[in-house]
Each structure stands twice: as structure tokens, then as C-alpha cells.
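Ticket closed. Logging final result for DUF6993 domain-containing protein.
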Amino acid sequence: MSRGTTPGGKTTGTANIRGAALSLAVAVTVALAGCTSSTGSTAQPGTIPAPSTAAQPTAPVDPAVAATSETVETTLKNLVAGNPKPDQEALRSALVSAGIPKANVEVSVSRTPTGLDVDALEAAALTGESCVMGQIRDGGVLVTVLPVLATGKCFVGDAR
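Final structure:
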């Protein structure tokens, strides 16, 4: 009589547990094998592949958008140099003085409804089908270009 069987040849609970453990081990091995790459990649786990050196196609830059981006960035940097936390009207006035039409300028509020300063002040200059977005946060300036919204505006909601 072998271990794990009764005199009548029936298996005991120990043999069932071993069989279940073996089945589980096989299932886990098969499942993990399915997670490996079959593309022949030689990258080691935890490494980041090097970026492609092939030229990436880029959309042509609209000269008007490029000029407006430069104007917004220069204007915001000059404004922040004198006051790291300008208010809404100072930002609007600076952009209009820099040559951006007043009708094309949108500026976010500079104070919350409870009277606190906002964390970031944002402005947008509508240029064709693009919005040149500028942000002032902690005395720093960030400028990016986004598409115009379906409303024809750059901001969602009331910019007051």
C-alpha cells in the first residue's frame, strides 16, 4: 500500500491536495507563459527602449499661430517679471497692449468666489482655428496651442 491510498485503492485527501497543487502550478505556468512577448524583443525587464531616431512627421505650423505664441509668451514673462501674481485685468491689458485684438483675448478669473487668489491665471488668444493658451503659475509661464472649441471660443463657460 502506498502513501495516500487506502487498502481498497482509493485516494486520500492528501493525494487530492497534491493533485490540486500540481494542477494549479501547471495552470499558473501556462498563464504566465502567455504574458511573455513572442515578438523576439531583446529588451530586459525594467528597461526603457531607446526612442526612434526616424523623423516624425509634424504638422506645418501656421505662421500667425507661431507669432501669437511668441507674443503671448513674451508678454506673460514680462508681466510676471514685474508681478508674479498679476490680476485678470492686468493680464488682459498686457495682451491687448501687445497687439492681440481685445475680442480675441479670454482671461480666467484671478480670485475664487470666496475671495482667495487662484493657483493659476490663464489667458487665451484666439488665432484662426487655434487657441494660444498661456498659464501663469507660481511666477512661471507655460504656453501651448490647442484647437478652438465648437463654440468658437477657447474657454469653456464664463470667463467673466
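The mean pLDDT is 78. No further action required.
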